[in-house]
Amino acid sequence: MAAVRAASAELGFAEAAPAWRLRSEQFPSKLYAPLPGRADAFHRGLFLFCCREPPCCAGLRVFRNQLPRKNDFYPYEPPSEDPPLEAGASVCLQLKSGAHLCRVCGCLGPKTCSRCHKAYYCSREHQTLDWRLGHKQACTQSGNLDNTVPDHSFLFPEFEIVIETEDEITPEDVEKEDESEVIGSMGEVPEEELDSMAKHESREDKIFQKFKTKIAQEPEQILRYGRGIAPLWVSGENIPQEQDVPDCPCGAKRIFEFQVMPQLLNYLKADSLGRSVDWGVLAVFTCAESCRLGAGYTEEFVWKQEIADVP
């Protein structure tokens, strides 16, 4: 299992009309997860989207695509590593060739401003938003209008992703954690009551305790990756059974690949209770065979688990 935490500058979770994208090759559009030994999956990406608004939170979508090393889209050799953008620098969403991109969300922008013909948009709504927040004044001005993107407070902030191999938790670690909690409460609760509580410890308590003990090693981790292993659940409620995870259209079973942790909400500035997207765990399941797609995309499966009220 790899524990992934945010550091600074390029984690990216860009909201796309209105959704967010997770990328990890430079991280902000996709989780880059190639499969060793698979020539057809040298480039393999997982894209996770969800609506930012609470009424639409059920609209979680995850897509996979994969390509061999020699393909029509990426060079055979990796590009040079350029230094990151300076703090506060504008993001360039205008491609030098090919399709035009929306100035607000970065999606395909087939619509254009009828006055300057330099600003492109995916929809009338995003054109209206950009007009109200600055394009009205800049429309007729010359300059790099087509290369810079104003801050609409629409995209999620971007950070760098740091990936580290997770250390195994020993039974001694769990025992020490349990002991510290008991000691901390001994002065307030009678010993007889503590014994009674220990005997009646629920499955929910044990699952939540395991979650806390695991993430204590990396409290700020935002993502956990481990293809084919068991996810780390935050609650004993709403854990999917085998029949709850649909098979891939190719006929193969889907297996767990990675999970998004609740700590990410703080980085995305989307942790306003009742007013923004919320989750306990987002668990992503992908085709066990990682079936061949050509140059296309296929939808995979994501399971959302809320944080239960644990006494």
From TrEMBL:
BP GO terms, sorted: apoptotic process
Gene3D superfamilies listed in its UniProt record: 6.10.140.2220
Domain of life: Eukaryota
Ranges where the MYND-type domain occurs: 102-139
Keywords for the protein's UniProt record, in alphabetical order: Apoptosis, DNA-binding, Metal-binding, Nucleus, Ubl conjugation, Zinc, Zinc-finger
Gene Ontology terms: cellular component: cytoplasm; nucleus
Pfam families membership: PDCD2_C (PF04194), zf-MYND (PF01753)
Molecular function in Gene Ontology: DNA binding; zinc ion binding
Cell compartments where the protein resides: Nucleus
Main location: nucleus
InterPro entries, sorted: PDCD2_C, Znf_MYND
SUPFAM superfamilies: HIT/MYND zinc finger-like
Function, as annotated: May be a DNA-binding protein with a regulatory function. May play an important role in cell death and/or in regulation of cell proliferation.
Record-given protein name: Programmed cell death protein 2
Organism of origin: Rousettus aegyptiacus (Egyptian fruit bat)
